[in-house]
Each structure stands twice: as C-alpha cells, then as structure tokens.
Amino acid sequence: MFSSLSRSVGYFGVNLFHDVIEVQYRLKHSGFPDLVVDGNCGQKTVAAIREFQRRFMSLPDGLVEVNGATIRRLQSTAISQGNARPDAPAPQASNAPVSGGVRRNVNELSVSPQAEALLKNYESLRLKPYFDGTGQEISEYIKGATIGYGHLINGKGDFENYKNGINEMKSNELYRRDIYDIEIKTKKLIKNPLTQNEYDAVMIFVFNIGYGSVEKDKGFITSEVLKIINGESQVDIDEAWLRWKYANGHITKGVINRRKSELNVFHNGVYAR
C-alpha cells in the first residue's frame, strides 16, 4: 500500500511539515474530525496518534513510522470509510508538485487543503491578542491588533471580545470567516481562469497583504499582480509579487521568504515554506 511519508511523525518523530500534513489528514478521516490539519505536530496530534494506535496496539507509542503498522492502518481505515483509494496519498504540502495545469473559472475553485495548511502554518495560531507588526502580546487595542490565524481585530469595541483570549475552535471559526470573505471578494476581481495552485497562491497572498481599497490605493485590488493576472500588464509577475516585501515600512527577510514561497505555489504547485 502506497505511503508518501518520507520521515516518521509523532512523539520523537522527525515531523517534517508535509509528513505531518499527511498523518493529520488521515487521522481526521479516521475518527478524529476535530483535529486541525496544520503541519504542526503538537500534543493534540500525538494524542490522536496514540488514541488511534489503541485500536490495534497494547502499548501505543505515539509514533507513525514510514511504512509501519500505524500508517498502513490509517490508510486502510480511510479506505473502509470511503475517504480514499488504496494508492491515493493525502493532500500534499511538500516539495511534491500538485499543480493540475488545467485553468478553470475561479468561481469553480476554492482554497485547497494544502493551501489552508500552508497558510495556517505561516500565520501561526495565537490565542491572545498581539500586535501584527512585532508579534508581541497586547492588553489594549492598537491598530494592527490581531488574534487567531491572522484575524485583524476591528477597533476598540471589537477588542473587548478578544482581550481575554480565545480557544482553538474560535480561531478556526474566525479563519473560515476571513478566508471565505477574501475568496468571495477576490474572485470578483479576477477575469482570467487559473489553475488550482495559481488560485491558492493568490488567496494566500491576499490573506497577507489585504484585499485593499481603491480610494486608498492599497492592497490587492490596486496591485500590479492583479493587472498581470487579468492580462492588463506585461510586467513580470515575480517582480510585481516581490514588491510586497515590507513590514512596518522596512524590507523584511521573513516577508520576502513568504513571497517566494507563494510564488513556488503559483508556478510549481509546491506547498512548502
């Protein structure tokens, strides 16, 4: 039975991002629907592995070995529940290209599990309010106050809802609301069809730089990237994409790396940081 695991996952595992994605995906479809597929092997993932192993092991170790009993059981469990073919790997977020090559109307597309996992990995889960510019926790509202997976807090009144923190369930609720809003608005701007990976890259990009405003000449709505996608500019898309390299007015290596990662998704279908 095929497994795309390259290294071990779980307690004292190697825990490469794309391998954790596969294990979390299979666990989610094997009786753990609330498990977050984010590429981070934390306590909840290890606990889910151990709980799953109790079905067939007397001493579960919380570790999924490459081609070991646990990954084979995870695959067969998903198959028995009608979630996957025997030879079908989980959605990848790795150096394995997943670009389909077929361009479709963007209204037929939505953010893929691979893109969601990569986006959440970039944003990181924060259960207390923090300032987006520095990452430092805050106790009072300031412009740029953020919580969860990059959810922007909208003013002092809104801050009161989050000042004492939130749980993971609420964070996922906010994320779903934010990405849905971004997709709905951004789709209306795009005139040309895109492949799945091109679409994913654009949505990850917009989630970070913002949909924007024509009046304020900011964000994706007035960007050169949008003009290129719509066939309204001959500027190189990589050059236009990499213009968005500033954080707090300064060129930042972390932002540049994120832009390069997004471009790797756009061109090659590689979902990795």
Automatic annotation (TrEMBL):
Residues 80-101 are annotated as: Disordered. It catalyses: Hydrolysis of (1->4)-beta-linkages between N-acetylmuramic acid and N-acetyl-D-glucosamine residues in a peptidoglycan and between N-acetyl-D-glucosamine residues in chitodextrins. Gene3D superfamilies: 1.10.530.40, PGBD-like superfamily/PGBD. GO terms for molecular function: hydrolase activity. Pfam families: PG_binding_1, Phage_lysozyme. Keywords: Antimicrobial, Bacteriolytic enzyme, Glycosidase, Host cytoplasm, Hydrolase. InterPro entries: Bacteriophage_GH24, Endolysin_autolysin, Endolysin_T4_type, Glyco_hydro_24, Lysozyme-like_dom_sf, Lysozyme_dom_sf, Peptidoglycan-bd-like, PGBD-like_sf. Its EC number is 3.2.1.17. It is an enzyme of class 3 (hydrolase). Residues 19-63 form the Peptidoglycan binding-like domain. It comes from the Bacteria. Belongs to the glycosyl hydrolase 24 family. This is Lysozyme. It comes from Rahnella laticis. The lineage of its organism: Bacteria, Pseudomonadati, Pseudomonadota, Gammaproteobacteria, Enterobacterales.
